[in-house]
Amino acid sequence: MLNKKSVDDINVKGQRVLVRCDFNVPLQEGNITDENRLVAALPTIQKLIADGGKVILCSHLGKPKGEAIPTLSLEPVAVRLSELLNREVKFAADAEVVGTNAKAAVAAMHDGDVILLENTRYRAEETKNGDAFSKDLASLCDVFVNDAFGTAHRAHCSNVGVTQFVDTAVVGYLMQKEIDFLGNAVENPARPFVAILGGAKVSSKIPVIENLLDKVDTLIIGGAMSFTFMQAQGLKVGNSLVEADYCQYALDMVEKAKTKGVDLLLPVDSVIADAFSNDANLGIAGENEDIPDGWFGLDIGPKSAELFVAAVKSAKTVVWNGPMGCFEMSNFAAGTKAVAEALADSDAVTIIGGGDSAAAVNQMGFGDKMTHISTGGGASLEFLEGKELPGVAAANDK
Length: 398
Ligand code: AMP
Fold this sequence. Notes:
Helix content: 25-40%
Bound molecules: adenosine monophosphate
Shape: elongated
Largest sheet: 6 strands, parallel
Number of strands: 17
Order of helices and strands: EEEHEHEHEHEEHEHEHHEEEEHEHEHEHH
Number of helices: 13
């Protein structure tokens, strides 16, 4: 059980509070095209303002790799945050991130003021977790708050290194929610506990499968991943995406599930197409039916959707990572939609891993019906693998 100190456990009145946020938003010609990450950061920032802290925000944006690339400046974020918070967020333009400008801006702060530092990855040491930049960041603050789950699986100066040089390091509300759901709910779930895995590759989900087989009552595997299992069991899968090197692994997992008493559900039918295209001719490959050469399995079929939905209906906790098919093309989105709808209608604790499944759920309009949608892709996968995340571990225990 992870039990970290949070912003609710500290008194920041008059203190300089450095908050590591995830403001890595998509930008087009200086315009923010998706501000979900900014909105998600507001509760922690508002709490610290209300408590009379001097709020110093920092984040990375893109991959400037140690260079002060103007198109990757966080200035547009400061402008938009000012609007969202309805108060000035001063931008501390500074190619060194913690240089003369940033230090002067912090020194001039009053209680409740907010400033945003420049892109932490303007400094090459950031991603190397070096001491010099970590100390620079720590010198600006009395208290450190980490609310950036998206980078929690990496040990960088602005989320891990800095904590070595401050007395108090706590998590923000967003991070707390990720810990509560992806960490603790998965460790100690209400049962039956159903995990749904999909997406492109078995190879990238091996540690997740291994970890979840020790915890779940039912493991559902859809998406292209399932074709490796089908080929391993002797079916022909045509031109579907398969990782032939992982067939033996797939068979081992089927055995492991049996040994552990886990119900492993694979698709019993597939939507197939004669090209990897939304305009292709479509068909269905039924249970134990080969997929013809030249055809691609691009979604789970209707019977599989029914089977998976029924499993979701009986669950008390559901974790989902990876789409059931090529949901980006409308003809192959039905399986992913059926699963998303089942989760939306369920009273279970529903947890969506970041990345494609989060995008699918939001795009299909079910976002507000889920208990938790993770804000981190790689980080949520590593949490589900049972790994310790450096960004979480670095916060003070309660
Ligand atoms: P991942 O990043 O491994 O979760 O994979 C997500 C991607 O898997 C999405 O872009 C889907 O389009 C893709 N995907 C899911 N099912 C299939 C499939 N049957 N064939 C090819 N790609 C798929």
